[in-house]
Amino acid sequence: MSDISLSQLLEAGVHFGHKAYRWNPKMFPYIYSEVNNIHILDLVQSATLLKEANKYLKSAAQEGKSFLFIGTKRQAATLIAQEAKRCDSYYVNHRWLGGMLTNWTTLKERISHLKDLEKQEVENTFDLLPKKEGALRRKELKKLRKHLDGIKTMNNLPDVAIIIDQKREMTSIRECKKLGIPIVSILDTNCDPDLVDIPIPGNDDAVRSIKLILKSLTDSIISGKASST
């Protein structure tokens, strides 16, 4: 895929950070200036690091590695599911359940239960049960789908995690760090670059910014998978 230009990053608002008082001093190297008490990110570095992230993901895809997209904030949820599906990867776009990775055995049991309930739904088993019992199972199925639908075909821990909004997804980041799963993440001015393996300085609140960067990362994974066949 072609590299994203500075004008594309600028147009998508990737350079807009948070108010200056909300910053993490560790992000100082990636900040270009401060305008009206808002930190402005250095788009030259954003473009360079996005290119590095794309190169890494393409190489990982060529090696047949698996990817988990994580982003539960409202602005990112739909995009996370859309882009993960586009490159045949896994995703979590609703609340992160503590232990999703570190307590993998228990999670696999929940996924198995989800698949069992889906089978019952297809076979119209719910309709054969007492009304209250059928309603409870439908409710449970809806809840499990909401949290696990994006990982129900994930048989093993992912090789790489792609995360939107470090501050919000800190639980998943800790689990990835504990398990040694590399993290690629957009880092806004309030983030800690030491917690990720491949940082991409950028606005993690604006839909256009998230969409542009996610699409670029996904294109790289698709390109890597295509060149490995």
TrEMBL record:
Kindly indicate whether the keyword Ribosomal protein belongs to this entry.
Answer: yes
Q: Which domain of life is it from?
A: Eukaryota
Could you provide one GO biological process annotation from this protein's UniProt record? translation
Q: Which SUPFAM superfamilies does the entry link to?
A: Ribosomal protein S2
What keywords appear on the UniProt entry? Chloroplast, Plastid, Ribonucleoprotein, Ribosomal protein
UniProt GO molecular function: structural constituent of ribosome
- Which GO CC annotations does the UniProt entry carry? chloroplast; mitochondrial small ribosomal subunit
Q: Record's Gene3D superfamilies?
A: Glucose-6-phosphate isomerase like protein, domain 1 (3.40.50.10490), Helix hairpin bin (1.10.287.610)
InterPro entries according to UniProt: Ribosomal_uS2 (IPR001865), Ribosomal_uS2_bac/mit/plastid (IPR005706), Ribosomal_uS2_CS (IPR018130), Ribosomal_uS2_flav_dom_sf (IPR023591)
Recorded hits in PROSITE patterns, A to Z, give:
RIBOSOMAL_S2_1 (PS00962)
Give the location in the cell.
Plastid, Chloroplast
- Where does it mainly reside? plastid
User: Which CDD domains does the entry link to?
Assistant: RPS2 (cd01425)
State the family named in the UniProt similarity comment for this chain.
Answer: Belongs to the universal ribosomal protein uS2 family.
What's the protein here called? Small ribosomal subunit protein uS2c
User: What is the native source organism of this protein?
Assistant: Didymosphenia geminata
Which gene name does the record give?
Answer: rps2
